[in-house]
Write a structure and sequence with these properties.
2 helices; elongated; mainly beta
Amino acid sequence: MRKTRMLLTAAIVLAAFPLAWAAGYKIDAAHTTVMFSIRHIFTDVQGKFQKFDGTIEYDPANAGAASVQFTVDANSIDTNNEKRDGHLRSPDFFDVAKFPTLSFKSTKVTPKGKDTLEVTGDFTMHGVTKSITVPVKVLGVLDSKDFGKKAGFSTAFTVNRKDYGMTWNKVMDVGGALLGDDVKIEISVEANGQ
């Protein structure tokens, strides 16, 4: 009986061991940026989202077990132009009344060298979900007496807006489309240990 109890206790401790070492982080919105750009006639017009939230599980010793969940408030779009932002919130683009969030939830993480991860997950925008794979650079982790536990990550990738049902465009009188289809996304994350 005593041996069974000891084995049961050992099994519980071993089962809890990975949880004790899991490194959970919450996105620090004050030190994180979510930027995007799209071609308008000749130039790339940039914008950002002001509101977002998310969590990251990351342990440098077991990077393949990492995971991320990230949600963006579509209504918080900001391109420094009120009229354009209103159009982007409309049914022509994000249709924020119907699709209030963009989200990403990882399904697989593959380490690619010392400070690089290949993260595959479900990206949802404008009510359409597709599996995408993005490169993630690990900027660092620290456990500081002054600042607590911190982790930093960045990524840059491109999506085709038409793949997500955002097809609005205008043909110019001189020919050619007003907007490009590719949207470049850049995210720089600082996260706090939980």
